[in-house]
Design a protein that fits this description.
The protein is mainly alpha-helical and 179 residues long.
């Protein structure tokens, strides 16, 4: 539910809206993490939750990436890193959906969990971008952008590796399905 608000705040492209967008993005990321952890711990995982949780995750990441590209917080070669993440999210989501019809699940790997963590931190830096803390100097404000770009590339590398692993396992399952 916070995704449209985060996107709108990023669109304002100024200090306070970006910091409020960051706060909402962090809140959405943290509540998503703990929601899943609590559901698993209490054994209260529901079919609706299993469907909606990945969709909410993808909406948060994809919307934020697209908006950050639109306002040039992700620009130049960093757009390639964003595209790697976007393509992987779409391909793996589609494959999971296809396999769900056959009652086959692809469990989340540890690398994918690391990918998500690095990706969320990278997006946090890029949401703030050049609107670093008001007390900071030019170097700190611009360093925030470069740290975000670096983390985005690291997330893209994790994304490509984990995406390949999922794709390989998924295609193995698909080949074993009856025609």
């Amino acid at each position: 539910m916070m995704v449209p608000i985060i996107v709108l705040l990023i669109a304002f492209d100024s200090f306070w809206p970006r910091w409020i967008a960051l706060a909402l993005f962090v809140a959405a990321s943290i509540t998503d993490y703990f929601d899943g952890k609590i559901a698993r711990a209490e054994g209260s995982i529901t079919p609706l939750g299993q469907v909606m949780d990945p969709i909410a995750d993808k909406l948060l990441v994809v919307s934020t990436l697209v908006m950050l590209i639109a306002v040039d917080s992700i620009a130049g070669h960093a757009i390639i890193a964003a595209l790697i993440i976007l393509v992987r999210e779409i391909v793996i989501a589609g494959m999971r959906e296809f396999l769900a019809g056959s009652k086959i699940k692809l469990p989340v790997s540890n690398l994918a969990k690391w990918k998500t963590a690095v990706q969320m931190v990278a997006l946090g830096f890029l949401i703030v971008d050049q609107y670093g803390p008001w007390w900071s100097d030019w170097l700190v404000k611009h360093s925030i952008h470069y740290i975000g770009d670096l983390l985005l590339w690291i997330a893209a590398a994790f994304t490509a590796i984990s995406g390949y692993s999922y794709l390989r396992r998924g295609l193995d399952y698909i080949q074993k399905l009856p025609s």
